[in-house]
Amino acid sequence: MTDIRWGILATGGIAHAFAKDLRTSGRTIAAVGSRRPESARQFAQEFGIPHAHGSYDELVTDPDVDVVYVASPHSHHCEHAILALEAGKHVLIEKAVTLDADEAIAIRDIAAGRGLLAMEAMWTRYLPHMVRIREILAQGTLGEVRLVIADHTQRLPSDPAHRLNALELGGGALLDLGIYPVSFTWDVLGPMTGVRALGRLGDTGADTEVAIAATHDSGALSSIAMSSRAAGPNTAHIIGTEARIDIDRVWYTPTSFRVTATDGTVIEEYASRIDGRGMQFQALYAEKLLSEGRADSELLPFEESIAIMAALDDVRTQLGVRYPKVR
Predict the structure, then answer these.
(1) Does 322 reside within a domain?
(2) Are 158 and 233 part of one and the same domain?
(3) Can you give the pTM of this predicted structure?
(4) What are 257-266's pLDDT values in tens digits?
């Protein structure tokens, strides 16, 4: 596959951000699909996309599309990813990949049975500063990593009718915000072996604040905070016996970091210099996998996405949050 053609499923804010970064990086967007034909036409006109489809079925059966970016709400990721897979399309699924682990397993099984790529669009993992951080960790610069601390805290709409607060759409801080630091600590420390969660629920029953303390295979600890009602520092820290990494605001976007030894000496300073939000890097990685005939991401294997969803299921159980199935 030398010229991989993207189809974008849904036309919300995250789809706009993704399309903009695809255009910035010169990727090919062949089609867009929406449940509302006018929305698809407007989106196609904005980004110069040749095909605008007034249904998701039309999008996934478009012969000019190789891979579908699923940008619908969490509650519909499973349905729409399977729709595309059954039409023979590879899928890049916006994070969180599904509502729960069972839905992620269903996607995995269908993708594996058809030899297709299913990949979670956790775009932060593919950013250049995260790539460099993994290199520093592999070099042992920090010594034994003992602790990871990260927050994702924003003041988001409190309207009960808003998607972010609607349980039937997977609303709440956990899936919209918490998925970032949970996936980050998993990347740095490996699987969570024990999870303790405390939270605060809003009027709709969706979580508005969550604090997670977790243990990991190495014995290291992670401390995670998220809020959809108050904006915090949005920084992250990896703390080892010999040095630490401090990732600046906003840590999950292209940003800067410092590596500081225990005696206060700055070992390295890094600053991201890229165009756009950085969502193109996950697309470039997906294209690389497809061009090499591979069907899973080494940076975020789909089995890891499933395991992360299982950890989030555990957190929701501890909080007493339950998503009603809308299908």
Answers:
(1) no
(2) yes
(3) 0.96
(4) 999 999 999 9
